[in-house]
Amino acid sequence: MIDVTVEGVVRRKSTLNEGTRGKYFFCYLFDKDGNSIRIAAFKCAAAHWFGKLNVEKFYRIRNVSVRQNVFNQITELQIILGSDIQIEEIADISPTQIPFVSLSSLKSLQKGAAVDVIGRILGYERSTNIEI
After folding, report:
1. pTM flag (> 0.85)
2. pLDDT, tens digit (0-9, with 9 covering 90-100), for 26-68
């Protein structure tokens, strides 16, 4: 395992939960290209770091090890927060530097084009056809 530094914006964050083995939480850090890594903390580290990582804020996290995690048959990269890491909020970076586009801009794509979509469901209604 290699100690690395990661930078990105926190996009999704769970609540601080109490499990059978103690407290835990997780969140996802997205880099400027839209790639994500799962951040998890357990027990004392969960209580320590939970209030220090906030959604829509940019962070530099140092001295961490990146591992592959398999949960519900999905493999993703994961960092487990411990007491020996460094987390620094990067205040001078704006969320607009991450290249997200509005769904309405998809109308200009050619038929058959592939896109990656990241979003949050705020509501739903019966499905309809959308032609682009």
Report:
1. no
2. 999 988 777 888 999 999 999 999 999 999 888 888 888 888 8
CB crowding 110-120: b at 16 or more within 10 Å, else e: eeeeeeeeeee
Q: What is the pLDDT of residues 88-128, one digit of tens each?
A: 898 755 544 555 666 677 777 777 777 766 655 566 666 66
Domains of the chain (ranges, CATH numbers)? 3-97 (2.40.50.140)
* 10 close to 49: Cβ distance less than 8 angstroms: no
Q: CB-based contacts of 58: which residues, under 8 Å, 6+ apart?
A: 7, 8, 9, 89, 90, 91, 93, 95
Alpha-carbon span 121 to 105, nearest angstrom: 19
Dist CA 32 CA 6 (whole Å)? 11
Distance of alpha carbon 63 from alpha carbon 84, whole angstroms: 7
